[in-house]
Amino acid sequence: MTSLALFGGRAVRQKPFATWPIFDDSEKRAVLEVLESGAWGGYSLKVPELEQRFAAFHEARFGIAASNGTVTLEAALAATGIQPGDEVIVPPITFIATATAVLRAGAVPVFVDIDPLSFNLDPKRLADAITLKSRAVIPVHFAGHPADLDAIIKTASNHGLAVIEDAAHAHGASWRGRRVGSLGHFGSFSFQQSKNMTAGEGGMLLTSDEALAEQARSVCNQGRRTGGAWYEHVRLGTNYRMTGWQAAILIAQLERLPRQLERRARNAAILTEKLKATGVLAPPAVDSRVTAHGFHLYVLRLNTEALPGISRDLIVEALAAEGIPGVSGYPYPLYANKVFASHPYLCRQCPEAERFCRECFWVSHEILLSSEADLDDFIRAVEKVRDSAAELASMPAKATR
Ligand SMILES: Cc1ncc(COP(=O)(O)O)c(C=O)c1O
C-alpha cells in the first residue's frame, strides 16, 4: 500500500510555502504618495527616480522604464535599428516574448540551442548561426543564471551584432562581478507579477550608451526627443510609458531586492546540497563565473536513469500532491509554438532544448524565501516520491501525459 498523496495518502506538506508578491507599508505609502501628488501617469517624478535607482543598482548609466518586459525588447530592437528581414539570434528555452519581439520588428528569429548545464544560449553554437543578415543576439539569463556574456559578447562584437540581454529573470544577478543587463548594448527587465521585483506589470531597459538610451526613450514616448516640444515627434514611436503607480511600488521593491537575493542564494545552496543526496533530481548547476544568481526559478532535471518510466510531468504531479508546487515548464521549445507556422523563423538543431522540455521543471523563487524547515519538507517529499517510484511508474498514462 502506497502512502503517496497522489494516490490518496497524506501529503508531506500541509501548509503553503511563502507567497508572492511580498509588500509592506513602504508600498502602501508609495501608492498613496502618487495618489496625492496627482501625477499618476508616465510623467510622475517616481518614474525617473526608479530609472536612476535601478540603473545605478545594475551599474548602467541609463534606465528607461516601460509598461512591461515585452515592449522593452521591442523598443531595444527598434532603437538598435533592426529592420524587416534582419536575423536575430535567440535561445529556444525562454518565454515567447523573446522571439515574438523579433517577429514584431519584422525580423527573423534564429533559434540556437542551449547549454545543458546553464540552460542558456550555448555560445559555442553562436558563430555557426551568424549569416550576412544577422544583426543582433538576445541572450536570456534563464531562471536568473547569467548567460556566458564573455563568449557571447566576444562573438557578437566580432560580427558586428548588437547584444540585447533579456534579463527578465535576473534582477540583481551578476557575471564575474558585473550586474547583468549592463554588459550588452541593452538589458531588458520585466516587473510582471511573478518576477523577483514586481508592480504587477512593468519593464525597464538599461544601457550605458547615451545615443541608444535616447533612441529607446523616444520609441517608448511617441517619438519625442529629450528637450523637444510636446508635439514634436522625430521618429516612429508609441506609448510604452510606465505609470507613476508602478514606479513607486518598484522603488520599494528595489529596496528589498538585495536581502531577498541573499536569502534565495542561501536557501538555494541548502536545497542543492540536500537534493544531490536524493539521487533522483539534479539541482541547477551554477557556472563558477556567476557571482550572483537571480534564482527567479530553481530548475531541476529529472534523473531518468534513477527513475525509469516516470515522466517529468508525472513527478511534478506527484510532488504537487505532496504540497510542493513545481511547474512542468515549457511543453516544447519555443519554435514548436503554432505562431511560427505563420511567421518566418530559422532553427538550428536543438537537441538540448528538446531534452530540457522532457526532463526539466522548476519551482518559483518564493520557495527560496521560505525557512529551512520548509526546505526540509521539500526534500522529504522528493524522498517519499523516490521511495514509491515503482508504484508511480505503474500508474496508467494520462492521455495528456
Ligand atoms: C525571459 C522573459 N522575457 C520577456 C518576458 C516578458 O515580460 P512581460 O511579461 O513583462 O512582458 C518574460 C515574462 O515572463 C520572460 O520570462
Commentary on this structure:
Strands 1-9-8-5-4-2-3-14 form an eight-stranded mixed sheet, sandwiched between helices. Strands 10-12-15-13 form a four-stranded antiparallel sheet. Strands 7-6-11 form a three-stranded antiparallel sheet, with no helix packed on it. The chain contains twelve helices and 15 strands. Helix 6 (149-158) links the parallel strand 4 (134-137) and strand 5. It folds into two domains: 25-252, Type I PLP-dependent aspartate aminotransferase-like (Major domain) (Aspartate Aminotransferase, domain 2, 3-Layer(aba) Sandwich); 257-393, Aspartate Aminotransferase, domain 1. With 401 residues, the protein is α/β, with parallel strands linked by helices. It is globular, with a radius of gyration of 22 Å. The structure holds pyridoxal-5'-phosphate. Residues 68-70, 94-95, 97-98, 140, 166, 168-169, 190, 192, 203 line the site of pyridoxal-5'-phosphate. Pyridoxal-5'-phosphate is lined by residues 68-70, 94-95, 97-98, 140, 166, 168-169, 190, 192, 203.
Structural class: alpha/beta
Oligomer kind: single chain
- The percent range for strand residues is 5-15%
Radius of gyration: 22 Å
Q: How many E-type strands?
A: 15
- Helicity range of the residues? 25-40%
Question: Which H/E pattern describes the elements?
Answer: HHEHEHEHEHEEEEEHHEEEHEEHEHH
Largest pleated sheet: 8 strands, mixed
Identify the strand order in the major beta sheet.
1-9-8-5-4-2-3-14
What are the distinct ligands in this entry?
pyridoxal-5'-phosphate
Shape: globular
Q: Which runs of at least 5 residues are low in confidence (pLDDT < 50)?
A: none
CATH topology name of the largest domain, in short, is Aspartate Aminotransferase, domain 2
Count of discrete structural domains: 2
CATH architecture of the largest domain: 3-Layer(aba) Sandwich
Beginning-to-end CA distance, first to last residue:
24 Å
CATH class of the largest domain: Alpha Beta
